[in-house]
Predict the 3D structure of the following.
Amino acid sequence: MGPRLKPARNRRATYKASARVRRRAPLPHAADLHTYQMVTNSIADMVSVVGEDEVYRLVNDAWCRETGLKREDVIGRSVTEVLPGSITPERRRALSDCLDHQRPGVLRDVFTRPGGTLRYLETTYAPFAEPVQGVRCAALVTRDVTAEETAAQATQTAHARMLALLDAFPGFMAACDEQHRYTYVNERLARVLGLPAREIVGQLASDVLGEQRFLINLPQVERAWRGEPSMAERQYPDPAGSGDLDLEVHYVAGAPLADGRRSYYVFGIDISDRKQAQQALIAAKEEAERANRAKSRFMSLMSHELRTPMNAILGFGQLLRSDPLHPLTPDQQQYVDEILVGGRHLLTLINDVLDLGRIESGRLAMAMAPVALRPIVEECLALIAPLAQQRPVRLLLPEPDSLQCHVHTDPLRLKQVLLNLLSNAIKYNRRDGDVTVRCVPGREQVELRISDTGVGLTPDQRQRLFVAFERLGSSLEGSGIGLALSRQLMRAMGGEIGVDSELDIGSTFWLRLRAAPSQAGAAPAALDATPVALDALRRHRVLYVEDNEVNALLMRAMLARLPGVQFEHTVSPLQAIEMARAARPDLLLLDIQLPEIDGFELLRRLRTDPAMGHVPAIAVSAGAMPADIERALQAGFAAYLTKPLDLSELLHAVQQHLRGR
Ligand code: MN
């Protein structure tokens, strides 16, 4: 028997020799036979030749090695005799096909090896006629294909795993080639597109998506190919429901295909829930804004309605208290004072409620500025001093030097907070107690401390103190919302308010304000307090348009304090235009809410008359919202007075605008 393996050069040489032999001689020479034998034995695959009688005529070395049989025990014996157990029906059919019908065949078999691993064999059946006797033969070449079979299976398994992975991904995936032909879609996306995945692959995206949907994606794909981040939100019909799916779609440049063409991947994430939550949030916000607008309208209305009767109470009260012609008895004086105190308290409450409502809906505009602290504190202390004397409570003032600083604040609002704290410190003090005001200036912030010597607060009371309408107990009469409003105001000014308290010793309320660099700023323009003497000899015509008769009566009585004023009144704005044309007034006082036309329209019509173009007009209204006032000043009113009217403020404004006329 020849060697099992020969060098490659020798094998090639042998092949050429055999080709020559076939051409030259019908009968093999002994040397040629030897060559054939050597070649056959050098083949690593199992080779056998079976005659038409199914008897082995040739087996090579590899065959003997694999079967463990000796050649002399095999040649001349039949297939069933030699390998009785290994002739499966398939092998028998392949062999008889080859021998009886001269049909070549290929058969792949799998065997279980002793260790349990599998072995794959591939046998080719080649028919031929033996040249000497013309016997039909079959040449069987059996090759071990276990390695390639297991490699193919491994590839298949890996591929199936990857597909399972992609299909399990809770998103939508597609891969396309440069011509926008699908090379892959996962099941989830296929369901959305309404076709089985295998039918989508190979199709053009424009055919699957429709031209329009395809075209809007194109710029995103171009961006991805340029290496830029590429994302878009898209809507697709929800295959599981009736609505739409909101997808966040990412486009990513893919790995080049085998032929070098570009590709891209598309990943979609379902953001329907997020979208719904967003929409719910927007709806809730709109609802809240609607509610706020309704609240705002209600507050504006309520303010107007409450101020109108307050105008009569406070207005006539002020007139009675200071009537030079009919002075009151001391008792009467006290009664009127009580009416005025009660009325003003009520007005404060109304204003506080409105401020609180505005501040809670974020509509309270703050006029923040760096201002000197000292004038503000001193003004508040001066205003509160009478209350302290009446109690009596001692007011211990701060070191004037400690007040020499500036703070960032809205001066009006700071005064409002300070007055609230000071009046509380007096009201909730013991008789002959102290109210101590201290100022602790710092680089970042300035602290104002207002201490009383009252009963102090329990921790529980301290907690509820700054909450609107919390009652602190029957022993404490409270304004109900003063401290709640103070806290909101301080927050809006970027400051803080708080309280330290000890039972039976007293409480200290503190305000922290943002410090501002000291500066020689211009002092705020003070009201011109000097009384303006009117020319008493000249009659000044004042026309008041007001539909409420009580308000008109009050105005008439108030203006009677000004000598030289000739008061005229009408409830009808249309009649007012006639009156103004007939006898030109020197000053117009206009209510805003009027029958027929409102105060704005009345002013506009009066202004169209050249003779009336420059007559000053003052708005007198129960509308006290900053927006009302702003609108009136822009419409050309010279001033805006809110009801309830303050007697001295009214007289001052009327005098100012009549001066020189
Ligand atoms: Mn009115």
